[in-house]
Amino acid sequence: MDLVTACRVFVKVSERGSFTLGAAAARVPQSVASRRVAALEAHFGEKLFDRRSRGATLTPFGRDMLPAARRLVRLAEAVEDDAERARARPLRMALPDVCAPGELARLVAAARAREVALEVRAVPPEERAELVRSLDVRVAVTAVPPAEAPWIVPLGLAGVAPPPADAIRLESLRTGRFDPAAPQRIWIQPEDDVPHIRDRLLRARDAAGLAPMQVTVAESLVAATAEAYATADLLCCSAAQASELGLRWRPIGALRLARGYDLAADAPSDAERIRARLSAELARCLGVPAGDRSGGRPAVAR
Question: Which of 6, 24, 19 is nearest to 51 (CA)?
Fold first, then answer.
């Protein structure tokens, strides 16, 4: 027996002195109201009402039970109100600050359509996990090696000038000892200043015979992009990011670099909620290629 629902009908009938009017107030058919009160009487082993042709009158037992029934109904309504407020509480989420504002807005809109009140913060990589630990956000997108990542974003090099080939080989950036031209540099933005990207690119630099200063970690994305706009330098970035910045993008020869992303959350259920309802939209926001947003992973050299 649903004790709360039965008590709600009991209270409504007692307030109106009629099964017909009480059922209407409880928004159930009269036959249902009668069955629920009868079930409650059977549960208690005593009659709650004297049923008469002109209405229903509380028995002495019914009068004694009415205050407790009202308290139970009020408590149940308070629980429902608290649950509604909890559902409406924003789920604060930290995302990479390389996500385009338009894509962040689309993610929030998609969340609303799926009954998730999402509030996003775009912050650098080193801050995102800390925001979860400090409980400033409930979920954060964190950088992980591609082998451990549900979302993978391939990286390449982008610059102002059209690339001469379908891929950029690092060996092509070597300069002669007496070449008067400034060496062409590759800028690593802060989002990619993580071992599985930075260290692999530095090793590839050394293997290609480039000068140490030809691969550099930038202080900010703005500073790195400004160098790409003003010189022949190249920005290490995703194809989606290059398109947003108006740069020409190509993969890096045989080197397959990629950002890997996963979710960190204080409560695992929050992360599962995002994965279940917003995986494709989050993939788009992060720059995952369109063909890989359903959960597939592109091949990434280790």
Answer: 19
Residues of the chain with CATH 3.40.190.290: 151-258
Banded model confidence at residue 90, pLDDT cuts 50, 70, 90: confident
Q: What share of the chain is helix, strand, coil (3-state, %, to 5)?
A: 50, 20, 30
Q: What is the rounded (10 degree) CA torsion for 274, 220, 190, 212? A: 160
Annotate 168-205 with DSSP letters as a single string: --GGGG---TT--SPPP-EEE-GGG-SHHHHHHHHHHH
- List, in sequence order, the alpha helices (H) in 114-172: 125-133
pTM of the model: 0.69
Q: In the beta sheet, which residues pair with residue 157?
A: 236, 250
How many angstroms separate the CA atoms of 174 and 185, rounded? 10
CATH tag, 151-258: 3.40.190.290
- Taking only the tens place, the pLDDT of each residue in 237-271 is 999 999 999 999 999 988 999 999 999 998 999 99
Phi, psi (deg, nearest 5) at residue 39: -65, -35
Rg of the chain over CA atoms, in angstroms?
32
CB contact set of 100 (below 8 Å; sequence gap of 6+): 240, 244, 285
Query: What are the pLDDT digits (tens) for 37-79?
Result: 999 999 999 999 998 877 899 999 999 999 999 999 999 998 9
Residues whose CB falls within 8 Å of the CB of residue 177, separated by 6 or more in sequence, listed in order: none
Q: Determine contact, residues 37/10, Cβ cutoff 8 Å.
A: yes
Domain 91-148+261-292 has CATH 3.40.1000: no
Please provide the CATH number assigned to the domain covering 3-86.
Answer: 1.10.10.10
Among all chains, which residue has been given the structure tokens 């994305």? 221
